[in-house]
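>> received
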Amino acid sequence: MCGNGDHRLKPTTAAYRTIPCLVDRSGLNIYRDRMNVDLTPDQRALVKRAIESGRFSHEEEAVQEALALWEERERRQVEILAALDEAEASLARGEGRPITEDSMRALAEDIKQRGRTRLAAERPASR
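>> returned
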């Protein structure tokens, strides 16, 4: 669990270990806030193995990597949801296409034809 100040949830078991880490919250790679991150024993072992293998030098680096991956996943999720919203709006405006066996065959033929045309254009002229 991550926490900050008195709002941090504290586990009821000693199985967690708190790792102090610096978290870049400015987007400018300037470390301003200090947080405590409580890891489960399995998470601690994972971080320890990563440090021992040379993947990370410090526990903080592992936490920063995890946060960066989380941020990227959240960003992608927002993009996907926005694309779904746009698709739904497009369908609501009547801009969708019905998908049938015939429409899929026609699409496949169109793609094949465009591919053949592209290959023909890329071939060197015969001598």
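>> Residues 2-122 form one domain.
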